[in-house]
Amino acid sequence: MKQKRIPLRKCTGCGEMKPKKELVRVVKSPDIKDDEGQVLQKGEISLDYSGKKPGRGAYVCSCIECLQTAQKARRLEKTLSCFIPPEIYEKLKEGIRKSEE
């Protein structure tokens, strides 16, 4: 019997390849544009526990240390191709703390 393939993703903090279910997805939703292509509203950055939200995603281990490493090296900003304000990192840390409980 053929064994089911487990999808692996790379943590942006520690750089380890882990099963997708063990990681938390940080997603930047698509920008809202008008008919001429002008950006009306920037995409929102949030945590995606289901892995199904639309948008550009990056994966982080569900520990604060990996998120801090990714923040220090600006890896999430590079992966999501946008500037991430410190308030967003605080919301992400709070979300990860809640998921650890």
Describe this structure in words.
The protein contains three helices and seven strands. With 101 residues, it is α+β, with helices and mostly antiparallel strands. The protein has a single domain (9-100), classed as YlxR-like (Hypothetical Cytosolic Protein, Chain: A, 2-Layer Sandwich), CATH 3.30.1230. The strands form three sheets. A three-stranded antiparallel β-sheet has the order 6-3-7. It has a two-stranded antiparallel ribbon with strand order 1-2. Strand 4 (32-33) and strand 5 form a beta hairpin. The longest helix is centred in the C-terminal third of the chain and has 15 residues, at 86-100. It is globular, with a radius of gyration of 15 Å. The protein starts with 7 loop residues before the first strand and ends with a helix. The mean pLDDT is 87.
Task: Give the topology, please.
Layout: E1 8-10, E2 17-19, E3 23-28, E4 32-33, E5 39-41, E6 45-48, E7 56-61, H1 64-72, H2 75-80, H3 86-100
Antiparallel strand pairs: 1-2, 3-6, 3-7, 4-5
Which keywords apply here?
3-stranded antiparallel sheet, two-stranded antiparallel ribbon, globular, alpha+beta, 30% helix, Hypothetical Cytosolic Protein, Chain: A, 101 residues
